[in-house]
Amino acid sequence: MTHTQVAPARGAAPLLVPLLAGGLVAVALGVYGRAHAPTGFAVGLAGFSGPLAMKAWLTTGAALLAVVQVLSAMALWGRITVTGSWVAPLHRWSGRLAFVLTVPVAFHCLYSLGAQYDAPRVLVHSALGCFFYGVFTAKMLALPKRGLPGWTLPVLGGLVFTALAGLWLTSSFWFFTTLGVRF
Amino acid sequence: MSRSGPFFTLAAGAVLAAGLAAASVTAAPALRQVDAQATAPPVEVTTTPGQTASPQQTDSTQTDSTQTDSTQTDSTQTEPAQTEPAAVDTTPKKADYAGVAQGNGGLVAIAVRDGRAVAYFCDGRIESWLKGTAADDTVVLKGRHSLITAALGKGRAQGKIQFGDATWRFVAPLVRKPSGLYRATAVVRGARIVGGWIVLPSGQEVGRVGIGGSGEPAPAFTPGSPVDYYGVPLRPQEPDAFLDDLAP
């Protein structure tokens, strides 16, 4: 692998494109969620008693994997003393799986229900959902770049985790505490 | 590590979303057919006052429903001549209509009670509750992004429903329970659940249940029986029970 020749890192300039792309993704999702007429129906994973339960559990799965993400990232950055060649693949694949788990959830939310601002919980959830995919996109695009400030990945990763935690609290946690822990 | 890995991750997510979109667009409609004969409800002791059972059923609500029915039948049938002989209002005092929205395939149900009217439109995916008035053999009902206007007479309500940018015509004949309009509400730990169902004499049925900004096609409903929604028992009621809540 050859190292791309980049100008010596000067601040956060190389971050511009990832951040712009992420911002575009977040705005696009929000505009789509608001502009299109909610279909009231979306195909999802079978096996649950309904779409709410499906989304609650997929989001919970993603949130648990997100905890793995934080721990494995801390290991990669030497913040916890776990070493091994398996840490990096664990971080990569737990992240990929978590992301894939969120896609049917977000698809159902956006396609079937759309972005809504009627109630605080729903408003926060809608905004966080758009923000989550924006930051995730920014992080994915920032990953291969060289010469980024050292704080880039921890900050972006931390924002992704925080957004997902907020999404879980405003959806799955609400579902489990309102209707009970059911599949 | 492949430096294109993150791009593949993003692409995989996009492809998955596109696949779900394609599957959702081509998915079957949400109307269901229930056996019309099977809609005879099992004995439901816990029926709420408005949820009167079918006429042939004899249970604790029989007395109430008989009284209610006779009163309302009287007012409907023996329409007293108004003070203005030139304009006798033939608008039904109590009538239930249900039919298909042509071109949409969803169902429309209208309930008229003493000049007030409520309606529900649902195709399993989109829905709207409407309220309005009935006068001069016409009902006009408004709901969120929706409007129904219909003429009453000849045993049917004939008109159109506007939903968003779309307009569908419908002819909804008079129906008798267990066919007609049903609505169930419940509050669970601060979250309000609202369900709506329309049952046709043919056994065709459609409905939706919503909670906290989210909604989904309703579980199958047999008139007289409760409906389980994620463990919450919903008790769909007839228009007499929810008219005041919906159209004060």
UniProtKB/TrEMBL annotation, chain A:
Record carries keyword Transmembrane: yes
What Pfam families has UniProt attached to this entry? DUF6529
Q: By its UniProt entry, which InterPro entries does this protein fall under? A: DUF6529
Signal sequence residues: none
Alphabetically ordered keywords of this record: Membrane, Transmembrane, Transmembrane helix
TM stretches of this protein: 12-32, 52-77, 97-117, 123-143, 155-176
Name of protein: Integral membrane protein
In its UniProt entry, the species of origin is given as Microbispora corallina
TrEMBL record, chain B:
List UniProt keywords, sorted A-Z.
Answer: Signal
Q: Give me the stretches of Low complexity compositional bias.
A: 38-49, 56-78
Signal peptide from the UniProt entry:
1-27
The ranges of region (Disordered) come to 38-93
Q: What is this protein called?
A: Serine/threonine protein kinase
Organism whose genome encodes this protein: Microbispora corallina
